[in-house]
Amino acid sequence: INLADLEAAIRNALPVSHLEIKDQSSGCGESYAIVLVSDAFEGKNTLARHRFVNDLLKAQIARMHAFSQ
C-alpha cells in the first residue's frame, strides 16, 4: 500500500483536523505509523478510537506488516 492511498482512505472517511503518516519501512509500504486527530473521536476513549481506525482501515492494514497509531 502506498502513503497516498492510505491518506485518501482516511481523509475520505472522516473529518481530519490533523494527520501525520510515516512510512517506517524504508519506502516499501509495509509499515506505517499515523497520528490522527478528528472530531469523530470526540467522546471515545483510546481503545474505542483505535478500534474505529482499525475498522476504517481494515483492508489496508491486512496488506501491511505493521501498523501503529
UniProtKB/TrEMBL annotation:
<comment type="similarity">
    <text>Belongs to the BolA/IbaG family.</text>
</comment>
<dbReference type="InterPro" id="IPR002634">
    <property type="entry name" value="BolA"/>
</dbReference>
<protein>
    <submittedName>
        <fullName>Bola protein</fullName>
    </submittedName>
</protein>
<dbReference type="Pfam" id="PF01722">
    <property type="entry name" value="BolA"/>
</dbReference>
<dbReference type="InterPro" id="IPR036065">
    <property type="entry name" value="BolA-like_sf"/>
</dbReference>
<dbReference type="GO" id="GO:0005634">
    <property type="term" value="C:nucleus"/>
</dbReference>
<dbReference type="GO" id="GO:0051537">
    <property type="term" value="F:2 iron, 2 sulfur cluster binding"/>
</dbReference>
<dbReference type="InterPro" id="IPR045115">
    <property type="entry name" value="BOL2"/>
</dbReference>
<dbReference type="GO" id="GO:0005829">
    <property type="term" value="C:cytosol"/>
</dbReference>
<dbReference type="GO" id="GO:0051604">
    <property type="term" value="P:protein maturation"/>
</dbReference>
<dbReference type="GO" id="GO:0006879">
    <property type="term" value="P:intracellular iron ion homeostasis"/>
</dbReference>
